[in-house]
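=== Structural record ===
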Amino acid sequence: MEIKDLSLPNLDENQFNVTTSEDLVAPKSTHKPRILLLYGSLRKRSFSKLVIEESARLLVKMGAEVRIFDPDGLPLPDAEDPTHPKVAELRDLVIWSEGQVWCSPERHGSMTGIMKAQIDWIPLSMGAVRPTQGKTLAVMQVCGGSQSFNVVNQLRVLGRWMRMVTIPNQSSVAKAFLEFDDNDRMKPSGYYNRIVDVMEELVKFTLLTRDNSDFLVDRYSERVESAEQLMQRVNQKEG
């Protein structure tokens, strides 16, 4: 089928950009990729925490700088003011990060409330700052029984909602209680190899996108909206 009429009468030509490969060539950062890791359980022997710790070791080996947030003491969303020390700590870490890892147990067929509470405390915007937009994300889950993908599917939806670059790979560890030794280290297995894959991919995507993240999330609709708001302010001043 051939489109004969290529006119675009509704397009604001002043705010429309044509992307070229040259637009993606930004000066490369030299600091280590900054990765924040979140887990979704307060159990004394939390397998999501153990997976996060294994992931952190791998990320350090791959040259990243890591931070693990401890959700113990984090209040329920809206139960406290955002100035609460644990909320402030979480938000500061989110702003600091260039990529994130989320790992939750599956409970009642979905992520835990502890995992969701952490994400709910992260706003889409803080003034002019969007803490998660354009940052990379890897999603993982641990299962008490057979392997399922309910949690990683939910986390993917949340990652997209938070405007994050959610990498293609993911990890779901079945019967997690069998995958760790008495020293709380993960045993050799296909599950472990998959976690290596996920961390490797996360580092690659973080290095690929972090210097171009502002450009990648620059949107036509927001440029149009900003231009309209500016015009309204100018007109008000003139009036």
Observations:
- The chain has a mean pLDDT of 92.
